[in-house]
Structure formats: C-alpha cells, structure tokens
Amino acid sequence: MDKTLLYQAVCKKIQEMIGKGTFRQGERIPSIRVLSREMKISPNTVMAAYAQLENMGLIEARPQSGFYVKPQALSHGIKRSGGLLRENLKPKQVVLEDTTLQVMNTISNQMLLPLGIGMPNPDKLPIEKLTRMLASESKRFGIQSISYADVQGIPRLRTQIAKRSFLAGCSLGADDIIITSGCIEAITLALQCVCRQGDTIAIGTPVHPAFLKFIQWMGLKILEIPSCPAEGINLDVLSYTIKQNHVSACIVIANFNNPLGSLMPEEKKQELVSLLERNNIPLIEDDIYGDLAFGKARPNALKAYEQKGLVLHCSSFSKTLAPGYRVGWIAPGKFMQKLMQRKSLSNIATASPTQLAIAEFLVNGGYDSYLRKVRRTYAKQIDSVIEVIGLYFPGGTIASRPRGGYNLWVELPEGYDTYKLYEIALQNGISIAPGMIFTLKKNFRHCFRINASYWSNRVEHGVEFLGKAVKDCKV
Questions:
Q1: Residues 217 and 323 both lie in one domain
Q2: Is the dihedral of CA 371, 377, 380, 381 positive or negative?
Q3: Would you state the pLDDT for residue 21?
Q4: 430-460 confidence digits (pLDDT tens)
C-alpha cells in the first residue's frame, strides 16, 4: 500500500475507535512503538497518522507521557447558531441553596478522606522549614513582626513576587503589588473596585464555589460561560454574550482551572485579554495554580498580555506552600489606588509574621527546588487516580487530564447523580465535591471534582469504593 494511503488508514482506524468510545476522552492511546509493532508498519507512518489526528483536534501529545484522546468541550444546554456555540444566556442572581452550602462546609471536614477538599496535602508541604523561618524571622524583625505592615505589604516579599512574575511573562515591580490575606481577599477586593451591587460578572462554568459565595454576598449577578476541560472558557460564547449583556467584569482561572484543571493555550489567553480590552471590561485573573505546572516552563499569566492595565492579577501561596498563612497578592494595574483604599478599610494590612516567613523562604528556602519535587509528585498521583477511575468506574466515564495543579474533573455518563454519590461517600468517611456546587444550573449533576494531591493505599481504596458505588447513584 502507498505510504500516504497507509498513514491515512491508520488515522481513520484510530478516529473510528475514538468515535465508538473504544478510546475514551482523556485515555492514553497506544504508543508509536507499540502500534508500529502491532500493525507491522514503520514508526514514521504511525507518527504521520498521530500528527494528522492532532491537527484534527482528536488527540494531544503530553511530554514524557504519550498520546491521549483530547477532552472535548462540555456543551450541556448549548445551542449552535451561526456556526458558533451559543447559549441564550441571561444574568442570574446568585442564591445558594442550603444543601449547596452544607456540602461546601462538609467537604472541608478533615476527619474525612479528603478527596473533596480544595487544598494541598499537608504531608507534601515544607512545614518544618517554614516553621523555623517563621520563628527566626519573627526574632530577627521583632518589632516589625508584631506591628502593622504597610498597606501594600512588606517590601521584601513584594520584591520577590515581582521577580518571580518574570516566569509568568510579566514585568512587575514591587510597587505594582499589594499583599492580601489569601487569594480570596484579593479577588473580593478586585470585585469591590470594579463592581457595584446588581452588576453582572461573566465567569466560566463550572464555577469555583468560593466565587459563588462572595458574589452572592456582594449582591452581584453572574453569566455562566461554558468551559472545556482542555482549554477553559469558551471565547466564542463569551464574545457573543458580552454583546447581548452589560458585563462589569470577567473572572477567569486560565492556568489549571478549579475544578476542571484546564489550561488555556497562550494564543487563547491573548485573544481573551484583547476581547475584554476592546470592550473595556476589567479581567480578574485567579492564577493560584500557575506555579504547579508539570511541564518545563510555567504558563504565562493573563496579565502578560494586557495593554491597558485592565487585568487584576490575583494569586497566593495557599496552594503551594501554606494555606493557613493566608498570604496572597494582587497586581491591580490601573486600579491600584482604589485597591489600596479598599485594603486599608478591609483589614488595615496582612499579618506581618507570615509575610516575613514567606519572603525568607522565597529568598533562601529553595522554593523552585521544592516546586520541581511537588510537581512531579502531583503529576504521578493524577495518573494514579485516573488509572483507578479507569478500572472501577462505569464505561463512558471521562476524567480530565490536567497538566498542572491537582484538581481532577470526573464526568459520569448521563443518568447518574453525584450528589447521591456524595451522600454514600460521606456515610463511608469519604468526601467528594459533587457537580451541583459548581453551578446555579443543573448541568453538572453527573460530574464531581476529586483532589489528587493525596495518594495512599487508603485513597486508592477510597476511589475504588466510589467507582463501585456509582451503580447505586442512577437518577
């Protein structure tokens, strides 16, 4: 057979197997070497077929891992119009049901197997080194450690954060940054600066539940924009929606989204920032997982692409170093003065001792060495969790394949209710985050988020139990 026809035949065969569900979304397909041996064809022919499948958007290559079926966009309730994915989206007031609030509180119970909680595994954190530095820095800067810091935060810490911004494609200075009490305070302050009660926020769905809580507290409305587990928020739908509605701000987690784990491609980031700048809409960026990339290079922040100072870049050390230290920051661009006023009214300043400790860790604690180690750990654990899901969950289950962070988004076949799975899990000492808490709609009742920062025999058995319990969760 002609080599051109041969690689096309291989491509067609793999395409048909993906279409039939033989190879599911997020699942690894045979390596070039294995397929070459099994089909008795040259590796170059397989490489050509896989390249064609990549161009078609059906598979993706992952460094040092192989080729995987590319997750497709979640398109619940979305209609096609004019060749674009569009919804008849209208702003909605955030009113969280008691059941949703109860689930949010329960999944944080650390007495449970913590598969639902949104925080890193404490066993992987540099606790001893941080504790020593907290004590030594409090002693070295005695008066400063018990005094109010400047509203913007301790200069040494801001300088280190500014230096590290280069890795995210930014060129910040220490004076461009305000230290906050975690990323949540940063985002809340950002919203207070750019919105008033009754305004509308555009945000990717599924939505981080903490966002829903403080959006409700502020009396804002939201437009839920559909998102894809591979590339994040759908820019076609966002563009269409902001033409139909007055949008005061947009909140985006571009790097390793919570809960999807998605990573927005760099060209899409640039497109997003340009779209919002053309419409003069502030963009509130949550980049809290950016440092946990599994690849060789950290992905750029959205802030790297701004031209008008409309990106309010928010992050913290809660997902990498110390959740309880509550040290975050914001680079608010043109909103700096308003942010400083809001911060001083909110809590005067962020606690000094933890700022001092984090600053010292960044200078002398080996932060980059620590990150390399923990990234490798999380990457392996995600693979382990996905492997167990593949073994014990029903056919048609889709697990996202994040390239950073530790959040996995699991989508069961239609007809299952993950709130029922949550209740069964809870009765057996396990927490999961059911899809219902990530939306005001009914789209994600068959989905749930799982935290892969934990891995042990107990976790493995817990995930196995969940897979076997799904049979009792049909609607």
A1: yes
A2: negative
A3: 67
A4: 999 999 999 998 889 999 999 999 999 999 9
106 and 217 in one domain?
no
Domain match, 164 and 198 both: yes
Q: What is the phi-psi region of residue 303: left when phi exceeds 0, alpha when psi lies from -120 to 50, beta otherwise?
A: alpha
Total count of domains within the chain = 3
In which band, very low, low, confident or very high, does the pLDDT at 284 lie, cut at 50, 70 and 90? very high
Per the domain annotation, does 82 fall within a domain? no
**Which residue has better confidence, 25 or 469?**
469
For the record, the structure tokens of 46 come out as 């397989």
Both 281 and 379 in a single domain? Answer: no
177 shares its domain with 35: no
pTM (two decimals): 0.83
On whether both 111 and 44 belong to a single domain, the answer is: no
User: 298: domain range?
Assistant: 127-367
In a domain, 112, yes or no: yes
For the chain, percent of residues with pLDDT exceeding 90: 73
Q: Are residues 272 and 417 in the same domain?
A: no
Confidence of residue 393 (pLDDT cuts 50, 70, 90): very high
